[in-house]
Amino acid sequence: MHADMPEHAHTTLAFGQSGIAPLTLCVLSPTAHSACNDSAAVNQSAGDATGYRSSGGASRAICFMLQKNAALVAGCRVIELGCGSAAAGLFSARHSSDVCLTDGDSASLLLARCSLAANRDVKANVRFAPLAWGEAGCRAAAPLPGTLADVLFSGGGPDAAPLLILCADLLYYAGGTRALVETIGELVRDGGLCVCAFNPRHADWQDVLCNAADAHGLEVWQLPLDSCVPPESMAEGWFASTRLMLLWHRSMQPPTLAEGDTARLRRVTATTAVKVGVGWEWASLPMGSSDSDGA
Question: Distance (Å, rounded) from C-alpha 22 to C-alpha 12?
Fold first, then answer.
């Protein structure tokens, strides 16, 4: 084991009676996790260094969503931001052939490597890359011409596969949210989709998320959890406050989801500002408002 590997343990991320095979994840031991939380310094570019654990409802929500929408991830290049134990990224590797797990913390990447080794059913090409969120982090990770995604995938050109970004429980605080959205905007500026699931941790999350998205030309839409999470799993209590969002650049077409779920998307806006126009119309798609952020 790597000399810098923190004290860790293995845990199982299960999906109830859904028929989805469980994932084995490498996470910090309770003692190490407590110490990490106590000592973590807020970092505007790389999160708060507490994301070493399986993030409950957020990771599960992304996995259920990808399971139902396997066509959305098949053939895509997948990037997980702030991967931690890499539950969402490793699950996507069951459907995609090319996955990049990123984190701003080197110990998290070690845990993600350990998680990969514990899941023998993952056949995809999985790579690992340090990536701090925000402008400074993107510049550091992408010193060469091309998009940040090109650099993370070693020079994928304009004919490269579509891009899917995964974010599981990363909206810890306002500064980190702005930096995260900036990185998402850099990744999908030429196309791609971001699936973001999280449990709100500060009261103004909606304003911060939507204003940051607007600044980077991104749309923010919410998908109801019951569209992809089975009723018996919803009853397990993992999803009490979980939100499931889709983000894409407003110059691109919205995604097509399985079994008519596209029509269930609701646009989320900042409560302190009014956004005008969305750049496209869909007759069957009800337009959301600031009160559409409920689960």
Answer: 7
pLDDT tens for the chain, residues 1 to 295: 565 766 777 888 889 888 899 999 988 765 555 555 554 444 443 444 444 444 579 999 999 999 999 989 998 999 999 998 899 999 999 999 899 999 998 888 999 999 999 998 888 899 999 999 998 888 878 776 778 888 888 766 666 789 999 999 999 889 999 999 999 999 998 899 999 999 998 889 999 999 999 999 999 999 999 999 999 999 888 898 999 999 999 999 999 999 889 999 999 999 875 444 333 333 333 333 333 344 3
Say how far apart CA 214 and CA 117 lie, in whole Å: 39
Spatial distance between the Cα atoms of 123 and 239, rounded to a whole number of angstroms: 29
* Token pair of 234 as six digits: 């919803």
**Dihedral class, residue 132 (left if φ above 0, else alpha if ψ from -120 to 50, else beta):** beta
At 7, list the tokens: 């004290």
Superfamily of domain 8-33+47-267 in CATH is: Vaccinia Virus protein VP39 (3.40.50.150)
Q: What is the C-alpha separation between 83 and 52, in angstroms, rounded?
A: 8
Q: Which two tokens stand for residue 255?
A: 């995604």
Q: How far is it, in rounded angstroms, from Cα 243 to Cα 288?
A: 15
Residue 202 CB neighbour total at 10 angstroms = 12
CB 248 within 8 A of CB 219: yes
Domain range annotation of the chain:
8-33+47-267
Amino acid at 67: Q
The encoded tokens of residue 235 equal 């009853």
- Transcribe 266-280 into DSSP letters: EE---TTS-----S-
